Predict the structure.
Amino acid sequence: MKTPSFCPLRRLLLSLLLACVPLGANAQTLLVSNAGDESIGRLTLDLTIIDLYAFTNVGGGWPVPVSNPTAFAISGNDLFVSNPDHGVSRFNLTTGYVIDSNYIDGREHRSFALSGNDFFVGLTNGWIGRFNVADGLPIKEDFITGVGAPAAMAISGNDLFLANDLDGTISRYNLTTGQVISTDFITGLDNPISLAISGNDLFVANSGTGGENGFVGRYNLTTGEAIDATFVTGVSDLLSLAAYGTYLYVGMQNGINRYDITTGDLTHSISPAPGYVGAMVIEPAAIPEPSTYAALLGALVLGLAWRKRRGAV
């Protein structure tokens, strides 16, 4: 009996299924604030500009949804933007349209971080407030108190790391209870303004006195011990950090630098646009809806069953 050849239908269905598999890290992008134009831009991870005006204030109403952002967070298909003077706004990540320019109302704040269904917002009164991601309403505004000037936050597991630029420290808190683990987890910093986590490393951006001679330190995320307190140096007007894969991105008033995350060597830079990059975040690669996979797999199974039945006749 002749062995059936690999049928065209099966080959087609397998090709369609493979075409829907995400391409990986290369499909991801970097979202950056462009405060000079009150917009948020989208760049490739190689710092090629895709669109400097992917998110803007057009049609956003009041308060303006993009106003000198200091932090971004992504949840599902939503981009949350921290505007210190106007609260937190919410955008559709796909369309770039404003969903709610007053998502968390005009509480003055300096930083925020997202974990699951909770927002943690560094308020200017020295509190860390806890808010509901679904509706932006407060769960407990005084979740953590007495933190000074919460310039930046980062979350790893059940730990919240907080940069205080008044006393040059990084504090560590329990994310569930708000209890302090260590108020002097890292000390001796020079105006810490942004944090980024990669693996077991915590990167701290120090803006320096007057914004000159900024530098990035690298610390052990578990112990707080310095791996290299001057991992990256000589960065003027340093504003923000983002880490992904083998690269560390440093946002400045006049562009972005990209460094090797292991050696600290500069690998690429872009200037002058975008300008005043006060916030950055890695945008996940688009992943097809589960229904897409289900439909294709169902078609594949039916096709193979039809082929088998036909061969048995």
Notes: Residues 35 and 80 are 16 Å apart (CA to CA). The longest strand covers residues 226-235.
